[in-house]
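Sample entry (467 residues):
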Amino acid sequence: MKFPRLYQFILFNAILFCSFSAISQTQISKKELIDLGNQFVSSSPHKLDSVGILLLSMSQADNDLYNSAIAYSFDGISSVMMGDLGPSLQSFQESWKLAVSINDTNLQINALTNMAGVYRFAGQPAKAMVKLGKALELLEGDEHKQTRANTLLAIGIIQEELEDFLNASKSYKAAIKVFDEMGNMSSYLSCVEKLGSLLSRVGKLDEAYALYSFSLEGRSVSDQVGMTIPLFREKGVVLFKQGKYSLASENLRQSLALSDSLNYKLLQDSTLVMLIRVSSKMEDFESVNRYTNRLVQYHQEQDEKKVEETLASLEMEYELNEQKLLNRALKAESEKVSLQTQNDRNILIGMFSVIVLLVVIAIIAFALIRRIQRFNSQLELKVQEKTDEVMLRDQQIKTTAFKLAHELRSGVATLLGAKNLLDENGIPEGIDKELYEAIGHSTEKLDVTIKEMIKNLEKITYKKEEE
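Predicted structure, serialized as tokens:
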């Protein structure tokens, strides 16, 4: 009875061998994987993990160090999107080591700038500066001008964050020079605006105003209307610091009008705050009331938007965690299939070369089955570990939602306290009573909304605990 089963086993493995041979012939190429990964970088970076795993497996099998470095880069980008900075940094370091071993400058620069981004995101700007400095040393020649200018700009930004204003100014000017040589007007003007912001920050207001005016003229000529919105606002801020309130109001109103016409809401609150300050200096209380009303309306809209974005972000984070778990499971399954394929091929080679040793083949087959069983047991343990990890992330998501709701509640409570204090002491003269009441009503309404949100979160948590 054992021999017929053995023949069935051999026949089954022969069928598997033919099937896997057909798959290998139609397998996706490394170039196609790299093209797919480059698409995912801009569209779906959380999917890069699967691409990186498969590309690395294929490249290591061929001892292809170049494509292995690219695979590690894909994996690093995916880890950044998942918020796993440690594994991300490790992947970029592996990519850099491979790039050094094959003396590929472009891959080295890519790995170094990626590591710098991780360090900056992790709150370690000094380490980011070291990596960018090494990248800058490699960026020689006309073919690297664009990357060199971008690197100089990144170095200037970090230097400004470290309050090294003198060197930041030098870095911005060096980047401006390179962008000017390339004729890249948009990036050139962006650097000019960064330099203007730095000069305004250190009190060189006349120079900052001149740079903003220059950039504004360039943006207008290039028909980049949207880019003029922050320039008008920054000019208004500089004029306010110089005490030129009328001109400051004119520029700020121009910024607000453009943002309204283009439905550009970003940083509109800072423009409204500056208009309130300028109008107050000019003793134009009617404008103060009007802009205050708009500012309150803006914050109400933003608070509602933040709640929606927070919930969407929490949902996205949960989906990313699920995708990460799926990718890891796919990796384990891929390794299992690869191992099984190799083992089946070995069995067939042994069968055709030493057909007379059927008993030996049966023993080997039995050992292989036991090995696959042990592998399956290890796979189950890995899946359980990832399941526990997802549950932990779910708890962190709920904690974050509670924290956000209570922090919003704290701010609203402060506003309500201020209103009660004014009610007790009397409303100061010069304040529009209807506007005051409207603000109070809106604040109370927002307080009720936040309380309901907290209550719903508590219900959800209690329900999940019961389950």
